Amino acid sequence: MKIGEKVHIDYKNDKIIVEKIHTANPALQRAEQLRSQKIDGMGESKLVGTIPIFLMKQWCDDMGIKWNDIEARKEVVKKKILSGEFDKLRVWKGTY
User: Fold this and answer.
1) Which of 30, 35, 37, 40 is the most exposed, having the fewest neighbouring CB atoms within 10 Å of its CB?
2) How far apart are CA 54 and CA 89, in angstroms?
3) pLDDT tens readout for residues 27-60
4) Are 91 and 49 in contact (CB under 8 A)?
């Protein structure tokens, strides 16, 4: 969730830089609620986690993946979510 912006003026390079500030708290709270209620999917379909859109965009940018490359995005999500670094966003703790 976007919570603000900071605007910087780079006079040296004649650029305006807009820094967007986000929080993942709503996604973290949602994941915690789903875990505590043991809601992790239906049958064989599992809800692995909840990822804020700004974080997904950052992951794609960091990996050099285009937003419309669905298969590559799936691999990025799998790698990041199973790494343990984003464990608080996970709902289902299994592997896939």
Assistant:
1) 37
2) 14
3) 999 999 999 998 888 888 888 899 999 999 999 9
4) yes
Residues forming a β-bridge with 4:
21
Place of tokens 């004649």: 14
Could you report the per-residue pLDDT of 54-91, keeping only the tens digit for each? 999 999 999 999 989 999 999 998 999 899 899 999 99
Tokens standing for 89? 């966003």
Map out the domains of the chain as residue ranges: 2-89
Taking residues 17-26, what's their average pLDDT? 88
CB atoms within 10 A of CB 76: 17
Residue 42 β-bridge partners = 45
DSSP string over the chain? -EEEEEEEEETTTTEEEEEEEE--HHHHHHHHHHHHTT--EETTEE--B---HHHHHHHHHHHT--TT-HHHHHHHHHHHHHTSTTGGGBS--S--
Token pair in block for residue 20: 């967007």
